[in-house]
Write a structure and sequence with these properties.
Helix content: 25-40%
Shape: globular
Oligomer: single chain
Distance between the termini: 35 Å
Bound molecules: alpha-L-fucopyranose
Radius of gyration: 27 Å
Amino acid sequence: MKNQYLIPILILLVTLVSNPLYSQNAGVLQVNKNINPGTLLWYNTPAGKWDEALPVGNGRLGAMVFGKTGEEQIQLNEETYWTGGPYTTVVKGGYKFLPEIQKLVFEGKYLEAHNLFGRKLMGYPVEQMKYQSLANLHLFFRNEKEVSEYKRWLDLETGITGVEYKANGITYKREVFSSFPDQTIVIRITADKPGTISFTANLRGVRNQTHSNYATDYFQMNSDGKDELLVTGKSADYLGVEGKLRYEARLKVIPEGGSIKTEGINLIVENADAVTICFAAATNFVNYKDVSANAHARVKNYLKNLSGKKYDALKTAAVDDYKKLFGRVSLTLPSSDNSFLPTDQRMKKIQTSPDPSLAALCYNFGRYVLISSSRPGTQPANLQGIWNNDMNPSWDSKYTTNINTEMNYWPVESGNLSECAEPLIKFIRELTDQGSRVAREHYGAKGWVFHQNTDLWRVAAPMDGPTWGTFTVGGAWLCTHLWEHYAYTLDKKFLEKVYPVIEGSVQFFMDFLVQHPNGKWLVTNPSTSPENFPDGGGNKPYFDEVTGSILPGTSICAGSSIDMQILYDLFGYYLNASEILKKNGAFITNVKTARSRLAPPQIGSDGSLQEWADDWKSLEKNHRHFSHMYGLYPGLILTEKKSPEFIEAYKKVLNERGDGAAGWSRGWKMALWARLLDGNRANKIFKLCLKEQTCIQLFSLCFKSMQVDGTMGVAAGITEMLMQSHEGYINLLPALPDEWNKGQFKGVCARGAFELDYMWENNKITKVEILSKAGAVCRIKAGPNVKINCSSRNIKFSILSDGIIEFPTVEGEKYVIEGF
Ligand code: FUC
């Protein structure tokens, strides 16, 4: 080890050994280095800005902890605090104009079609509500001018973030976590000398600087008794939608020793030995059409349930609950000396020297973010999960479904976090409410449809403008997640419950699909390939009336490749589900026929996969979306095996678009290259993503703004590099980068309800354990010489083609395979 690293590591070792956080986790500490570089983020400087802070969350309450000395700042969110109130964007009677729009598209009069869609089929309001920041807690500590031995961390093993430093010879420590069982964010302040904790606390509301929401109506700050501070307020009116949400954010401060008092909106603690702060918050939101709850009563109740509970009890309950989810999976990849450096330094060093365990840390962080932003009973993770400090966040921190919301959930099933998909599943069902009205009023169709964006209120009509709003397959794409949930769990009861939702989506498209002028295909019309403008069909810049801006062209078309591929999957899943649930009838037969007539994937004259039904190129060379590659990933229809003739066409697209762009685009690229079995390319993209599109706490960036989709995309990409199961069998290490030559993946899930634990050395599998959770037949790429054991019994297997073996399994049994 190089000398310059010895001192920081020694300091860290000494602190970790004396640190209860770590002694509690002694079991997972590494033998020689004492920290697990795959689960600990740490830094030796405080966050300088919001997107360097460390996140905690319980699915509902989120905090970004800056870890500052002198004046600490903790930014707080409650997931249901959005602008507006229940509303709808359905516009009645739009369907009357649909035939004319379709005719114009087929005649190649794209701009005319665009403008008519803009006037008659857009939802109203054209835009949607915004996710809001709730409050900021400021703690002004006394006597902290000279600070040394500073560090802060986020321990993914426990979900606790901490900060520790020395000031005036005293070591101060703070721990922060967001408890799911107790529905509170807890801040614990300790010092190694009694009577030395003194600070003033201030809980501040957040003003929208652009809308001049001057205080009083929007929020009020108060103290209550000698130990509580609170902010109460209402949601902003926005786009003519009245703000119907009321919220309360309240904290209770419990000092041990010393004194406590409030003065106006300040709470003052003097000379305490230790302090626990419990933060509770709520709104009156019940669901997307009901805001009849009482925020104040909810908050009082949360705090009442905490009374009498000691800090240690709160911590144990939160950590135990969190570990039940996080602890199911562990990923170990090789570490180097650099792996034990602060995370921000690792991100730089990995550019020139391997540190594979940083990929394990990113994977684990992805799972951490999912657990912290999506728990049963909460809202699904939005563009920023639940962490937002801005009243006008980028893209309103909504749900964007032409890639982003889906990507948020890519690692959920394989990551053994099936129950964290519950909020998404509920969300899809809720979208069918306005979605079926939009189907009827905007398209004259049965079933339900949902486009490319929604908010807390589950609006479903086209929005933003025809360039984006002509994406009709948002709901269909989401339905593929329902199927995936089944594919990983084989839970027939679940399938039975969601079957009508899937069927409703299919119904819409059975009405909406029209015959292409070539007389052969069925296509969507209007259609679009997300946010990409074709260099074809006479497309040129024009002034768009809906957005009031000059756009490079229109994106309106018929039968974009992504539409066709998503529908091919959706119809296929629907047919599978019908068979499994023993449903039949004429509609099902018609869906089968329609599926065979969907416009097929095509290779263009330049040899790349076509993004549109016509052989058009894209105006933007490095476009960030890979919409027409949906079928390769996350879809299942274009695979190495099923469609080898397309391999070169995919590679051409990926190479032409390059390895850059937004964080989420890079996560997608990683997964795509993994499906093309090129692990080294995926690893190269991963490193570049760390360098250019990742915040230091590993949240992904969408160019300049934090967005969690890329975090999950990277986690999903890493999974695809290490395990794939989309072709009907388990494929271990399909795209292993040379640098990741040794490792272990424990608890990762494969389709067919299998949980795997496998190890490899020198790029070769040494041992696999497979837990069969539903007793399905197991197929795995393993070669003919393996031995399979189950409770000391030798299990016979059949050999299929391509080195794939097959054996029956019994629910709940573990199968050990050796001799790869
Ligand atoms: C999609 C992307 C953008 C951004 C937005 C939230 O529309 O094209 O880059 O991520 O979603």
